[in-house]
């Protein structure tokens, strides 16, 4: 297997030390394996993505000494692929429209009298299923609804995944580690996802697609063999393995890595300008200083 990996930032803020670690690690692994390092700009959320952040991504990565294959894959250039996959999933009866806002979901998820905290998954609050059985457009009769969020009916998706003729478990190979040290061959029954992830959003009200949908389609379209990314996405990988089976896409090898934290042990965030690569550059740091700072 040739080694093809990617770094996939969203241009919604400055790259910080955590991004630098992820990008350098993926780049170095690709070079060590004689493989390819690709860059993907995850900009489907047109309200939050900014061209100036995209430009700064290229500048920062080049300054770090990284090189990547051209042309760069920009998600906003590929929305027709996301639409086509959504059409297929819609016609297969796997999606339903959802009109809930965050407040509706919070209210419905916290409704039970027992006072226990609402369940959460990789996307935050677990969707309580409010819109699942509402009357509305139907696959087979109606085209995929537009201008509304579409959720994956997880119970149906799990049944479908179990009837593809492939193994009853979803699996992926982990060459790094999950947050609890998970590594090696990871196997789990798809039904776990009804509790762990619930009916996730695969298309947003204001733009086509969602992170989970776009990432599996793009990893396949870019022929990615190894996904190198932070361990915070380990749980999301279960969702990705399910979508890969439903969409008949290959599952790459995953290499989740440790997260870079600040002095208080908190994860770095986009707004954490103090840790922005740009700030270190302006203060006269060298690319080697950045490698040292992140422990490479
Ligand atoms: N745009 C995502 C992020 O920055 C990419 C995650 C991934 O590598 O799958 O978190
Ligand atoms: Zn809803």
TrEMBL record:
One of its GO terms (cellular component) is cytosol. Residues 131-145 have a biased composition (Basic and acidic residues). InterPro entries: aa-tRNA-synth_I_CS, Glu/Gln-tRNA-synth, Glu/Gln-tRNA-synth_Ib_cat-dom, GluQ/Sye, Rossmann-like_a/b/a_fold. Keywords: Aminoacyl-tRNA synthetase, ATP-binding, Ligase, Metal-binding, Nucleotide-binding, Protein biosynthesis, Zinc. PROSITE patterns: AA_TRNA_LIGASE_I (PS00178). Residues 111-146 are annotated as: Disordered. The keyword rRNA-binding does not apply. Residues 4-103, 180-291 form the Glutamyl/glutaminyl-tRNA synthetase class Ib catalytic domain. One of its GO terms (biological process) is glutamyl-tRNA aminoacylation. One of its GO terms (molecular function) is ATP binding. It comes from the Bacteria. Belongs to the class-I aminoacyl-tRNA synthetase family. This is tRNA glutamyl-Q(34) synthetase GluQRS. It comes from Rhodophyticola porphyridii.
């Amino acid at each position: 297997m040739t080694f093809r990996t990617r770094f996939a930032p969203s241009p919604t803020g400055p790259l910080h030390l955590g991004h630098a670690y992820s990008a350098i690690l993926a780049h170095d692994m690709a070079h060590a394996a004689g493989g390819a390092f690709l860059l993907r700009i995850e900009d489907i959320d047109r309200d939050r993505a900014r061209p100036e952040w995209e430009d700064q991504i290229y500048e920062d990565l080049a300054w770090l000494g990284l090189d990547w294959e051209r042309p760069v894959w920009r998600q906003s250039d590929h929305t027709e692929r996301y639409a086509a996959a959504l059409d297929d999933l819609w016609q297969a009866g796997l999606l339903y429209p959802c009109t809930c806002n965050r407040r509706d979901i919070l209210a419905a998820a916290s409704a039970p009298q027992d006072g226990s905290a609402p369940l959460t998954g990789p996307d935050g609050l677990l969707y309580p299923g409010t819109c699942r059985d509402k009357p509305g457009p139907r696959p087979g009769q109606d085209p995929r609804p537009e201008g509304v969020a579409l959720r994956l009916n997880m119970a149906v998706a799990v049944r479908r995944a179990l009837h593809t003729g492939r193994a009853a478990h979803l699996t992926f190979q982990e060459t790094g580690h999950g947050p609890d040290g998970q590594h090696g061959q990871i196997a789990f029954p798809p039904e776990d996802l009804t509790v762990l992830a619930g009916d996730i959003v695969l298309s947003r009200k204001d733009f086509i697609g969602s992170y989970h949908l776009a990432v599996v389609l793009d990893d396949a379209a870019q022929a990615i063999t190894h996904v190198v990314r932070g361990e915070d996405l380990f749980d999301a990988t279960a969702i990705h393995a399910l979508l890969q089976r439903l969409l008949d896409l290959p599952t790459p090898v995953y290499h989740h890595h440790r997260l870079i934290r600040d002095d208080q042990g908190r994860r770095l965030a986009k707004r954490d300008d103090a840790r922005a690569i740009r700030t270190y550059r302006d203060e006269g740091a060298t690319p080697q200083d950045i490698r040292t700072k992140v422990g490479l």
